[in-house]
Amino acid sequence: MRISVLTSSRADYGIYYPLLKQFQSDPYFDLNIIVFGTHLSKDYGFTLQNIIDDKFYVGYKVETLTAGDTAQDIAKSMALTMHKFGDIWEQENDKTDLILCLGDRYEMFAAVSASVPFNIPVAHIHGGEVTLGAIDNVFRHSLTLMSKYHFTSTTNHLEKVQNMIGQKDNVYSVGSLSLDNLHEIKLLNLAEFKLKFNIDLSKKTLLVTFHPETVSFQENADYVKELVEVFKTIEGFQVLITMPNSDTMGSVIRKAFKELDKESDYVIIVENFGLHGYFSAMKHCKFLLGNTSSGIIEAASFNKYVINIGNRQKGRTAGGNIIDVHIQKEAILRKIEHVDKLGEYTGINIYKGQKLASSQILKTLRNI
User: Fold this and answer.
1) Side-chain-side CA neighbours of residue 355 (13 Å)
2) How many CB atoms lie within 10 A of CB 234?
3) What is the pLDDT of residues 145-158, one digit of tens each?
């Protein structure tokens, strides 16, 4: 079975990783990885190199980003992605048995949309979820409707996909694929982390990832201003910030964080830790703050609480470790003070399946 896997960012590649390893080691599958989006951008860490370093074969490297991050720029990037992938599917049509896509990104939507006229079967991972504060919500549901096979992270999401497509066939609840990485990766200890990144996580550290709210993108300048004031006011923490995705008005957030980094000796910004580094940082931090799906899906497996700010993840199924707060300085500071006293989270991770998600997906695809 020849499978074309679409990866457009560090985020989806980290989730795919355990499945890609299984594809590569199983002679039944012929793996063709198509890389595009921020993977090829130096501004976002040129994360294509991570894929190459992991010794995966990359069939296509597609430049799809346009300059800028206004709503018009995003629309142009979508159009460019669809145009270039039309050429790819024309070449790959007779050689591809299945396209594998993941998540909810606008560039993923564009790449898969271009395949629809060619009638190539599509398998989608992470359908049925809801994020009301991001335009990704629309793209995720559209990808579901364009796909023939579906691998969801919970039974609740399975039911949503079944209701959306009007049938129960070819929908499988496998848990979150990214959690398989906990069985694959040996995390860095404090000394190893400091040696590799020159960051001392023995200090009480707040791990922050804040992406733009793309539904209310006009508000992002105000949101990041409130967040910067939080970090200027906070005491007793080292603040470790991973930079946001390529989204509408994301440059406003990136600029504000870079200026804060110059002004403060306890704020550290990192463009790209890679999967190994990011999970190691999650393991050693005190807790997380931001609006990233990794807080919702993975943090519970590290026994971490997450202060989930704003509306980007609103509507997504969340576990008992998630503490919501609106984006306002004093409200966030109160939540930080509260969570700091809680210790570790001891509940379950609702996204963890009974078996490895990658093994379940592999078995299902072999049986198609």
Assistant:
1) 9
2) 18
3) 999 999 999 999 99
Q: Could you report the per-residue pLDDT of 257-305, keeping only the tens digit for each? A: 999 999 999 999 999 898 899 999 999 999 999 999 999 999 999 999 9
Structure tokens at 54: 């992991």
Helix (H), strand (E) at residue 31? strand 30-35
**Residue 43: closest CA among 354, 252, 254, 229:** 254
Q: Which residue type does 331 have?
A: A
> Which residue is it, tokens 């800028």?
68
Q: Do domains 2-175+353-366 and 190-340 have the same CATH topology?
A: yes
Which CATH superfamily includes the segment(s) 190-340? Glycogen Phosphorylase B; (3.40.50.2000)
- Give the pTM: 0.88
The domain 2-175+353-366 is placed in CATH, from the list 3.40.718.10, 3.40.50.2000, 3.20.20.70, 2.60.300.12, at 3.40.50.2000
Where exactly are the structural domains of the chain?
A: 2-175+353-366, 190-340
Residue with tokens 């679409």: 6
Report the DSSP beta bridge partners of residue 208. 241, 289
**Contact assessment for residue 153 and residue 176, using Cβ atoms and an 8 Å cutoff:** yes
